[in-house]
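Final report, section 2: Outcomes. Of the targets proposed, Beta-galactosidase is the one most frequently requested by collaborating groups, and we therefore present its record in full.
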Amino acid sequence: MSKTDHHDRRQPQPYRPYRWPKEPNGHSGGIWFGGDYNPDQWPEQVWTEDVALMKRAGVTMVTLGIFSWARLEPSDGVWDFGWLDRVVTLLGEAGIAVDMASATATAPYWLYQAHPEVLPVEADGTLVHPGARQSWRPTSPVFRRYALRLCRVMGEHFRDNPTVVAWHVGNEYGWNNAADYSQDALKAFQGWCRRRYGSIEELNRAWGNDFWSQRLQNFDQVPLPEHAGVSDAFINPALRLDFRRFCSDALMDFFCAERDQLQELTPDKPLTTNFMVSTDQCVLDYERWSRQVDFVANDHYFAHGPGHLDELLCSDSLVDAYAQGHPWCLMEHSTSAVNWRNFNASKRQGELIRDALAHVAMGADAINFFQWRQSAFGAEAFHSAMIPHAGPDSAIYAQVADLGGILRGLSRSGLAGTQLEPSSIALLFDADCQWSMADSTLPDCSVDHWQQVYTWYQALLDAGYRADVMPLRGQWERYDVVVLPALILLDQEQAGRLRDYVSRGGRLVVDFASGIMDDHMHVGLGGYPAVLRDLTGIASQEMIALGTSDQGGGSILVSEGIEGNIWVNEPLSIEDSVRVLARYQGRRSYDLDMAGKPAVTIHGYGQGSVLYLGTGFTKESLVSVINRIVPPDFLTGAAGAGLHNGRDGDPRLVHLIRSGPQGRYHFYFNRGSTVVRDVSTMGEALVVQRAARCSGGGLSGNRYTIGVHGVVVTRQ
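The predicted structure is given below as tokens.
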């Protein structure tokens, strides 16, 4: 790994200056619109038709060359840019900009045949063969040499081409090589540990290596968390967590090397790579990655079901936080079904346009799809695209063209460059916490940090509030209310920030699984949550797993109609100043010796207060806790103008606002399965999609009936 260490976790790296792609004429332009374009999959006579259809649909940018290494370098050191130059010329003449890929995501077969030592290795020693994507080790010096040579040639070739306005470095890093157990990785991990800990004694302390005779004598003995027989679940948790951190850092180091090579040759072109932020995965530590890009880009694929819109908004909220409030790029999403799930649902009844506008509402100034033309062959042949197999005379292409017109109108209105107005409730997320909960030695392995964040996000929407998702290392002190959803790892530095926040008047929510361990997965002693005990005013002595009915367990009653799940924390001590808001009751509470003991409490600390939840809750129960148990004044201020969900807290709606010099842009979404009538809006209508204006209006603005998957956008 590079000696220019981007990975000193003791001091966060500064953010790179924000740079957004400009149009070839140098203007900032409006909302970029387009997608991945793979002309190398099609005969050249199709390209002219493609460009004409792009113009008709309002496409303004495409990404080129993501998986084109084998075409660009058909053999070692032999280059063929003729076909790509012709595509770029066609696009440039049509006024369509190019986000050019570094083309390093997947290497050609000749490289793998010549250098099989670049292939990754799985935990059980199995070699990952080529044939999919990213069959390479980020720590391989051989692969890095070839990849950087390609970056250098690409940079030199396109350095003066005005149609190329940005660099798309790599592609979805970690998709197929998030963890590598090769000898290259071992050597790099040992160096990473040496830089992180300084001495082997400090590493032994951090990893708790006196357990099971794991004490190391030098850094050359540092192992990888490889397959260890039937006891894989019991591999040192601190070692496994540090290895996940290392893997994220190793890929980031590789990205930075590519980025720096391209930037040296094309300093005027901004660079990024596409993150994969969604509530069902946490491949890399994107908070750290976000400091290394010129602008944040993300790929998001919808979660089918009643929570479709909610999940999109929750994921995008974290992306917007990574972007520091700057406009960001939706690099990929789908026009309809994907092809890599067990059940690949289609988008219907306006979801294509609704989803795109939801991303815009959440701060995206670029809306791109995978991909332009649906592949006729290969592993993603049945993944939807802007032009489906049926061709341009299709419902999908018609919707794509409609969306292009909508985005063009929003661009003319001045929306581009505005920022999403924040809520006053923050839900904290941390990649380390998510990774640590993959460890199967916790009291209950069903708890998932990301899913707890999402549960809180949905519950607050259902209760009439909108929250922002913020990284733990972000600037969340400005929020009125901060929630820790299963934030199981918390070091002294972050605990000190929370303590200062509450002392100055902040309101903090600590749930049943927060503050249990430090960042090395050492359990805090003296009662859970040890590091936050003075804030909660309550210490617990045992985590009692509740299990499910199939396991002979089940939920525990907290109040009528409100049940706790996952586990309960049995109190050890309670300060006199703690006010009990709800106690355990019912037969199950007696069986567990928890009857009458505090389940939900509140404690004053300094000028603020701390709400403590001693058990987990489903979304439905959490809504009831918010509405029936939490004191009304605890969330006061979290539903102020522009910050609350919908009209008067109507949980059927989501109301989002972007603001800037041109005004405030209001987005009203129907998040339910029924029509919402008589919705009061503010300002002039810019977009009315699956909605209709009601008669009347008045000084407060116009009123609309918003249908299922409908949206109204206004400017005030």
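Confidence is low (pLDDT under 50) at residues 639-648.
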